[in-house]
């Protein structure tokens, strides 16, 4: 994959030294663990706060193994809840009294659409309540740089693709509503600073499209609890023989082959996008940046199945079923704003996504519980 013409991969010119000491909430999860690896490889010192409700400490042990060198001395792991002030206090003090946290990457949250419909209160409490508590702790510790994990789900049923950041915000499920509420919270915080001209907040809302794949080593990857609802982990379990076939939710959509079309982004590209956002915020003026993190290229379910069969050498039988409630036909990012602001774009394509997903799944048939 190459960057669109006219964009450079990384910003040039002199830069302030990047933030070294970071708090990563939810850092043991799928995207969090891959981002922690990229941050450690970039020489950063991390404290991870994770409640392990949807993740496993093993992921971070393997992250240290992959990062090598002195990574074990640069990663502190705390089991705790972002809604608990005492846990946040412990995280901010983890590097000792003088060891201030310079920036936060906030992954901790619930993200299953279907579950959010059944348990809206828990989603609002964890996602929005947790973010309020985190921002309070950040302010109390003089830390005002935050990279926030948002989602393309805020666009609901997009009216057109590719989807720019200026597209209507119209979430259609409680999960999406919480992401919009968190984005509004950050916008209010940024606006509150404008009036007083203080050293304001540096905030980035990163709207992920469909994160998939795994680190090429196959040592870390996506490890959903229970029955996955997302396409890639389901396909990988069918390829492994853990499931008989893949249900295809509708083949009468207005797309190239009638199946749903999505913008899949390799989790390593996504992780690198977080590093680029962190360093961009740290070097720039106080701001609120809202960016799509996607490839700008759509693939249909059938195209993904074919690519996965090619990459794995395994058959992935499918069974066409009715459309899934709340699904859109197409969801594809306009990725240009991130390329312009961060000098970042996706560099890995569908072949790598399928290859790396299969490599992880085959090496870890039961995920981290192997
Ligand atoms: C992708 C395509 C399905 C499963 C969700 C969340 C979103 C984000 C990413 C957190 C669709 C089809 C799927 C299956 C299928 N998560 N499909 N059979 O729905 O685009 O996005 O995950 O931020 O918020 O909504 O991803 O992987 O569930 O579906 O045919 O068994 O695959 O219809 O077209 P989705 P998905």
Key terms:
14 strands, 11 helices, 370 residues, binds UDP-4-deoxy-4-formamido-beta-L-arabinopyranose, three-stranded mixed β-sheet, seven-stranded parallel β-sheet, alpha/beta, Rossmann fold
**CA-atom Rg in angstroms:** 20 Å
CATH topology of the domain at 21-214 and 265-296 and 327-346: Rossmann fold
The helix-and-strand class reads: alpha/beta
Largest sheet: 7 strands, parallel
Strand content bin: 15-25%
Tell me roughly what share of residues is in helical segments: 25-40%
Q: Note the gap between the termini.
A: 33 Å
Shape field: globular
In words, what does this structure look like?
By secondary structure, the protein is of the alpha/beta class. The chain has a domain at 21-214 and 265-296 and 327-346: 3-Layer(aba) Sandwich (Rossmann fold), CATH 3.40.50.720. The chain has 11 helices and 14 strands. The strands form 4 sheets. The protein has a 7-stranded parallel beta sheet, with helices on both faces. Strands 12-9-14 form a 3-stranded mixed beta sheet. Strands 7-10 form a two-stranded parallel ribbon. Strand 2, helix 2 and strand 3 form a beta-alpha-beta unit. Helix 3 crosses helix 5 and helix 7 (231-240) crosses helix 11 (350-363). It is globular, with a radius of gyration of 20 Å. The relative contact order is 0.16. The model is unreliable at 6-13 (pLDDT under 50). The chain binds UDP-4-deoxy-4-formamido-beta-L-arabinopyranose (WQD). UDP-4-deoxy-4-formamido-beta-L-arabinopyranose (WQD) binds at residues 111, 113, 151, 153, 208, 210, 229-231, 234, 246-249, 260, 262, 301, 324, 327, 331.
